[in-house]
Structure formats: structure tokens, C-alpha cells
């Protein structure tokens, strides 16, 4: 059996010379060398039921566009948003600013309201669409760990001036932070439904537009149209620490409401939001790179797996995070936020502020640096080839948001206009991506788990809570699948009817061919299937407890690597890491899904 240290060496084997060539234009050709195109096609997992066919809803395009135009014509730009219920689904329109209400601070026992509505434009009914301005030079977003003293001084000055703007100025730091709160914590509603840009396919395009205008405002404040936000490349070992420029007290980039454990070069841990600092740095880095590989490659073969579940007005039964939103996006938020229930002063107990709660996340300047790398992952993912491409469903392309630009002018923006960062006037400085070599190869155990004393899934589920590890056996729909069958259909482990308190942090890990004594501190092994993570939020249905959510994990690759392809029955172990007492699961199954 390979040791963890040897896996570290394998995983980090990309030298500087080879990894520097891994730009978004060369990723596809590089990736084809160590991995077969067949494996690229079939790797996938997700927390919702999807098809690889991103065009499956295109037959409704004309109906959706016509429906949307009718709604807009009924009463101006925003009043259509309040019509409910709708006759059928349509793209998400810009929010109704006139009816913006107080948001809800999630994570507390009682409902705590928080005001984060934006300034209201003078003419709500005639807000124009934003046209990308001409450019003479691309803004190049640098690696946060590599910036110069001159860049830091410029970034600090721009942030300082943003914080000094009048509180009612839509460009001010507080108003910019409020954008995230309003879109993510229940301030905007469509009839009885709460607008929520997380846990759906709106996650990536919303945050791209959000950072685009934030970046342009910073540049305007220092009279530098070429200024670009830095990106925190937490997907590389050298970037798995808080960038030093954000850890300097009494500077505009410092936030006192961070967890103290993020300071002084502490390594971030994607696999656990624990408050204690890990001492095994090598294993933590290896786990992080393994999770990056799972999120970018194994579990993200198709657009809806990467972007998240469909989310349209009038039909929002589905819910699910994309792979990167799940991990590492959410663990980074939890890691940087304050320890929950600690004293913030004045008798207030922490709800995870700032980064660890949607309502307050953007009050920490590191938020924008963090999301710049999330946005970069969108570019990198598309460069991996295969079916990794933007969604073509018009319900996604025609969804809209509302922002103010650097001149305080209000605009509507479309998802379809933010698919190419270079057309938007910016790009990313190249950086190595060593996780591309981190497919797990080590087995956590020799042989197969003895099924004699393992209960079948139909006797274990439903479970009322996940307050301890559970193991169960489960039958597969078929065995010894041919190569052609594997290419056509995915074998997927599906947890159905997840119900949990959305106010709580939730995380559980899933393993194949392991028992309840599995070592969950080491994820760089073939038995590790994936993890589910939740950050406290307000759901689109405004319900504290969500039901009928599905969490899917593709196990085709794992069955090959563990040598279980010929087995009729396999063992699955689920290990709660946090919040297990507030989550229940109705059932579990293994199904074959078409692309």
C-alpha cells in the first residue's frame, strides 16, 4: 500500500516548468496525456439529478421568452416579479427594488432582520441594459500571493476610498457588501418565493457580474482603469493560506471579524471547518488537492454538475450546488468566519461573521479575492475539454441581475453577456494547477468489507438524523459493465429526500468499501466518493427545513479503482463531520443515468 507521503509526492509532482504551461488555452491538450478521453466523458457527481444534455430545455425557449416579455409589459420592468404563481417557468428577472424588504440573518435561534436594500433608482421602469464598454488593454487579475508592494498600496488606497464614500452612495463599501446580502438572505422576493443565487446555476454568473462592477469601482476611485482584483489561488499549495496583505491590522484590507486561526500562515483545510488548527500540514494539502480534483474533474463532467441546478421563476423544486460552490467555495467561507456563538461585543453572539454567513460575507475584503478564484475556476474548467462548456439553455442565458456601475448608473445585466472574461475586459495571470495530477490511487484498505454484519440500505433508511457514522450494503442495478455501457451511462449513488436546518453548518463524507471505523482524516484514497457541505442560508422557498433534495455521487470510477465492478452488492459508509443531528435522509439508491 502506498503511504500518504508517497501520494503527496505523486500529487505534487508537477514541476514549475510543466505547470506554468497549464493555461486555459492548453489545458485540454495537456489533460489528454495522463487521462483517457473516455474517463473524461463519464466522470461526474452532484447533489441533484442532472443530465449532461445542457440543451434539454431548449424546446421551451420561445415560450419562455414570450412569457417574459408579457410579464415585463404588464407593469414596467420590475412589477412582473411579484406576479405569483406563474403559469409556467421563465428566466429569473432582475429583482423588484420597490418591494425590497429586510433580509434575515441565518444561523440564530430567533429570526433576526437586517436591512441591506440598495438605493432606489429614480426611474425604475427605464433601467437600461449594460453594454460592455470598449477597451484598449485587458485588466490582468494577479495572484494574491505574488503582488508587489506598489500593487498593495494601490489596492489599499482604492478600498480606503470606497469605505470613505457616503453610506448612500451605491459604490460605497457597505452598499457593495449589501448586494450579496440582498441577493442571498431573503431581501428580494418573487411573490412568495425568495430570490437566492446560491445552490443553483445562478451562482457563477451572479458573482462574476458582482466582481466585475466592484473591480471597476475600485479602479475609478484611484483613476486607474487597468486596476484588477487579485485572486486567492487556494487551489495551489502556495496559496492555501490567507494572503499576507489581508492580515495586516489597521489597514483597509484587514477584517477583525475573522477567525483567529486563519492568521500567521495557517493552512486552510477544505475537508473540515473545525476551529482547531491541523498539525499535519502535508496531509491537509493533499486532502485539499484531492478535493480540487474531485470538484473540477471527477464530479464535473457536465455543465449542470459544475454550475448547479436549474433555477427558473415559477418552477423551483430542484435545488443543488455546483461542485465548486460545494467545495472549496463553502469551506473557505466557513474557515475564514468567526467561531459561531463567540462574543462579538455588545452582547452579540457570532453567527459566523463575516465570511461564514451569507448576509455578512462581503463585509470582509477577502470575499472578493476568494470569489475571483472561484470565477477563475469557471475559465479553467471550460479549458479541460470534453462536455465542459457553458450552459446553452435560454432560461439561464436570459436570467438577469441589477447593479450600479462605477459612475453610479443603474443597469440590468444578462447572464449571457458574461460568458467570456476577455470580452468583459479582464483575464487572469497564469498559475500552476497541481490538482490536475491528483486522481487518488491509494487504497485505504486491502480487500473488501465483510458484508455479513452490514445491514441493507432498505433497513437503514429512512434515518431521522445523522449523529453517528452509518454503514449499509446496497445492491447495484448491474455488474461487469462493458466499456461502451460505461461511456453511455453513469452509475450514480443517490441520497434522496435530504432534509435539514438551513440555518446550520452541515457536512458529511461518503466512502465506498469502508466501515464505520474509516479514517476520515485521509481523503487521498480511492474509497473517498465525496462530501456534502452547507453554509447557513435562506432557501428560495423561504423554508428553514428543505426536503426532497438529492445528493448524487458518481461511483463508476471508484468501482474500477477499488475493483468492485463485478460485485452485486457494495458497502457505503456515511460519516457526519458537523451538523449531523439536524439532517435526515429518506432513502438511497444506485441508478444508471444517461448522459
TrEMBL record:
<keyword id="KW-0560">Oxidoreductase</keyword>
<keyword id="KW-0809">Transit peptide</keyword>
<keyword id="KW-0934">Plastid</keyword>
<feature type="domain" description="Tyrosinase copper-binding">
    <location>
        <begin position="364"/>
        <end position="375"/>
    </location>
</feature>
<dbReference type="InterPro" id="IPR022740">
    <property type="entry name" value="Polyphenol_oxidase_C"/>
</dbReference>
<keyword id="KW-1015">Disulfide bond</keyword>
<dbReference type="InterPro" id="IPR008922">
    <property type="entry name" value="Di-copper_centre_dom_sf"/>
</dbReference>
<protein>
    <recommendedName>
        <fullName>catechol oxidase</fullName>
        <ecNumber>1.10.3.1</ecNumber>
    </recommendedName>
</protein>
<comment type="function">
    <text>Catalyzes the oxidation of mono- and o-diphenols to o-diquinones.</text>
</comment>
<keyword id="KW-0883">Thioether bond</keyword>
<dbReference type="InterPro" id="IPR002227">
    <property type="entry name" value="Tyrosinase_Cu-bd"/>
</dbReference>
<keyword id="KW-0186">Copper</keyword>
<keyword id="KW-0479">Metal-binding</keyword>
<dbReference type="InterPro" id="IPR022739">
    <property type="entry name" value="Polyphenol_oxidase_cen"/>
</dbReference>
<dbReference type="Pfam" id="PF00264">
    <property type="entry name" value="Tyrosinase"/>
</dbReference>
<feature type="domain" description="Tyrosinase copper-binding">
    <location>
        <begin position="198"/>
        <end position="215"/>
    </location>
</feature>
<comment type="similarity">
    <text>Belongs to the tyrosinase family.</text>
</comment>
<dbReference type="InterPro" id="IPR016213">
    <property type="entry name" value="Polyphenol_oxidase"/>
</dbReference>
<dbReference type="Pfam" id="PF12143">
    <property type="entry name" value="PPO1_KFDV"/>
</dbReference>
<dbReference type="Pfam" id="PF12142">
    <property type="entry name" value="PPO1_DWL"/>
</dbReference>
<keyword id="KW-0793">Thylakoid</keyword>
<dbReference type="InterPro" id="IPR050316">
    <property type="entry name" value="Tyrosinase/Hemocyanin"/>
</dbReference>
<keyword id="KW-0150">Chloroplast</keyword>
Amino acid at each position: 500500500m502506498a503511504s500518504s507521503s508517497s501520494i503527496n509526492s505523486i500529487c505534487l509532482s508537477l514541476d514549475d516548468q510543466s505547470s506554468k504551461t497549464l493555461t486555459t488555452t492548453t489545458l485540454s491538450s495537456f489533460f489528454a496525456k495522463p487521462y483517457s478521453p473516455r474517463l473524461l466523458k463519464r466522470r461526474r457527481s452532484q447533489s441533484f439529478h442532472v443530465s449532461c444534455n445542457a440543451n434539454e430545455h431548449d424546446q421551451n425557449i420561445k415560450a419562455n421568452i414570450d412569457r417574459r416579455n408579457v410579464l415585463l409589459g404588464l407593469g414596467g420592468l420590475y412589477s412582473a416579479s411579484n406576479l405569483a404563481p406563474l403559469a409556467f417557468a421563465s428566466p429569473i428577472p432582475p429583482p423588484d427594488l420597490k418591494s425590497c424588504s429586510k433580509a434575515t440573518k441565518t444561523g440564530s435561534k430567533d429570526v433576526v432582520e437586517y436591512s441591506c436594500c440598495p438605493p432606489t433608482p429614480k426611474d425604475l421602469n427605464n433601467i437600461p441594459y449594460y453594454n460592455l464598454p470598449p477597451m484598449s488593454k485587458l485588466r490582468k487579475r494577479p495572484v494574491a500571493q505574488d503582488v508587489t508592494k506598489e500593487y498593495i498600496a494601490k489596492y489599499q488606497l482604492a478600498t480606503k476610498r470606497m469605505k470613505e464614500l457616503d453610506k448612500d452612495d451605491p459604490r460605497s463599501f457597505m452598499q457593495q457588501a449589501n448586494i450579496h446580502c440582498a441577493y442571498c438572505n431573503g431581501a428580494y422576493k418573487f411573490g412568495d418565493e425568495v430570490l437566492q443565487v446560491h445552490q443553483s446555476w445562478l451562482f457563477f454568473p451572479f458573482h462574476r457580474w458582482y466582481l466585475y462592477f466592484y473591480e471597476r469601482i475600485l479602479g475609478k476611485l484611484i483613476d486607474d482603469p487597468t486596476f484588477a482584483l487579485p485572486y486567492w489561488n487556494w487551489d495551489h499549495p502556495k496559496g492555501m493560506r490567507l494572503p499576507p496583505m489581508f492580515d495586516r491590522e489597521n489597514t483597509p484590507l484587514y477584517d477583525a471579524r475573522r477567525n483567529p486561526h486563519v492568521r500567521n500562515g495557517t493552512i486552510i483545510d477544505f475537508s473540515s471547518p473545525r476551529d482547531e488548527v491541523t498539525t499535519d500540514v502535508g496531509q491537509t494539502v493533499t486532502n485539499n488537492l484531492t478535493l480540487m480534483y474531485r470538484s473540477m474533474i471527477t464530479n464535473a463532467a457536465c455543465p449542470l454538475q459544475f454550475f448547479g441546478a436549474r433555477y427558473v421563476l415559477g418552477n423551483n423544486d430542484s435545488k443543488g450546488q455546483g461542485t465548486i460552490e460545494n467545495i472549496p467555495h463553502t469551506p473557505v467561507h466557513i474557515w475564514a468566519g468567526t467561531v459561531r456563538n463567540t462574543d462579538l461585543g455588545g452582547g452579540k453572539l457570532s453567527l459566523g461573521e463575516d465570511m461564514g454567513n451569507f448576509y455578512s460575507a462581503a463585509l470582509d475584503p477577502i470575499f472578493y479575492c476568494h470569489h475571483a478564484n472561484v470565477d477563475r475556476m469557471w475559465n479553467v474548467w471550460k479549458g479541460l475539454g470534453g462536455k465542459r462548456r457553458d450552459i446553452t439553455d435560454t432560461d439561464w442565458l436570459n436570467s438577469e441581475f441589477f447593479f450600479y456601475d462605477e459612475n453610479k448608473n443603474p443597469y440590468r445585466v444578462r447572464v449571457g453577456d458574461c460568458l467570456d472574461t476577455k470580452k468583459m475586459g479582464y483575464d487572469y495571470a497564469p498559475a500552476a494547477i497541481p490538482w490536475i495530477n491528483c486522481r487518488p490511487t491509494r487504497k485505504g484498505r486491502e480487500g473488501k468489507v465483510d458484508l455479513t454484519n452490514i445491514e441493507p440500505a432498505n433497513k437503514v433508511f429512512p434515518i431521522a438524523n445523522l449523529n453517528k457514522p452509518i454503514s449499509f450494503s446496497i445492491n447495484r442495478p448491474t455488474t461487469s459493465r462493458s466499456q461502451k455501457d460505461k461511456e453511455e451511462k453513469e452509475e450514480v449513488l443517490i441520497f434522496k429526500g435530504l432534509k435539514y436546518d438551513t440555518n446550520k453548518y452541515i457536512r458529511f463524507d461518503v466512502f465506498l468499501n469502508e466501515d464505520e471505523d474509516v479514517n476520515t482524516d485521509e481523503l487521498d484514497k480511492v474509497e473517498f466518493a465525496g462530501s456534502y457541505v452547507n453554509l447557513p442560508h435562506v432557501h428560495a422557498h423561504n423554508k428553514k427545513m428543505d426536503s426532497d433534495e438529492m445528493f448524487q455521487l458518481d461511483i463508476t470510477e471508484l468501482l474500477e479503482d477499488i475493483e468492485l465492478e463485478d460485485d452485486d452488492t457494495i458497502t457505503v459508509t456515511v460519516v457526519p463531520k458537523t451538523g449531523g443531528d439536524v439532517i435526515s435522509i429518506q432513502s438511497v439508491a444506485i441508478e444508471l443515468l444517461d448522459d
